[in-house]
Amino acid sequence: MKVKLLSRNPDDYVRETKLDIQRVPRNYDPTLHPFEVSREYTRALNATKLERVFAKPFLASLDGHRDGVNCMAKHTKSLSTFFSGSCDGEVKVWDLTKQECVRTLQAHEGFVRGMVVRYCGTSFFTVGDDKTIKQWKMEAPGYGEEEEPLNTILGKTVFTGLDHHQKEGVFATCGQQVDIWDEQRSSPVRSFTWGVDSFSSVRFNPVETELLASCASDRSIVLYDMRESAPLKKVIMTMRSNTLCWNPMEAYYFTCSNEDYNLYTYDMRHLDRPITVHMDHVSAVLDLDYSPTGKEFVSASFDKTIRIFPKDGGHSREVYHTKRMQHVICIKWSADNKYILSGSDEMNIRLWKANAAEKLGVLGPREREATNYSQKLKEKFQHHPQIRRIAHHRHLPKNIYHQTKELRIMKEARRRKERNVRKHSRPGAVPVVSEKEKHVVTVLK
Length: 445
Hints:
This protein is an alpha+beta fold.
């Protein structure tokens, strides 16, 4: 006679301590759970609704400037240190954890046009309307000491932009030409011109550190190699680009913000057409910055909003605005990928969450599991009409809502007119031009 013994392991159902939650035996056999999908769909719907309820992106406003904030810089080694320069020549150093200004210096006469922290984090550079480049110590002066720059270089023309090399004591400025400077010398090591009267922005590539790019006033974007004596190539667009930013993870990709309300992501190897056209703003885009992961970027616009775009998405996933915020001049994404800082016309710097519904602070293990689970559910059901509608809906200020509507009608009218012209013309006389090819005039090498 066979006797079957019941063998139970107490570890499977007994709590370790009386403070633990009771262990529930689970059988994951799908035949026992016929309503799994409908149950998960309901949970995903609830998670999406809760995400919109908890979306409170605005964290703090840093006030103290007496004129509009014109440029900002992140510290290369410290997360909590942040720099801002205003239109009255004042530079402020902020402690973001305490949300207060720790140091103020009168750096220039007129606008502070650009600022950047040295790659090692020991000093920072500023340029202004007074034609000077100044290098400042990172530490505040001691009691009774004067606030003096470490080094001052007097240029021949006004500088409009500034960026520092990622690994060497070399920096670049732009104005009437793009200059490469060595920190030890008072004259530029190399100057680049290409029949352009002025440049608005210059940026070093963070991966291929010898490459840099600039935006010029003749509607062009020019690429340079520091090791060459002449520029590499330039792409001329239909309207002027204000600033550009390299993708920190993909060496060949950069995005530029344009006057025609769009942003364009290019591959520097194929400049004849952008990879992606990012639309949604209803006025000129003034600045942008990539997240440290390289998967998203944030843009600041004259239409008083901030938008977050996926790097390969044509439309923004998030839009931030407040009643008091005026034209947003400069924007930065923090190095820990959690926060966004914006500087605007009305003298304030605002701190935002990069993920609007994210809970800040320490998460318990069960809380983290629940968050990850609901995130996966939202991804699984993201294309269902009901969930997509709730997830994508954003409340916009009345004027932006009406401008968006107006732009849509104008674009549709242009498209309809083009269709009609093509219909009543000889076949092939009016070619179909894609949205990506419309905005590039020519590429010069």
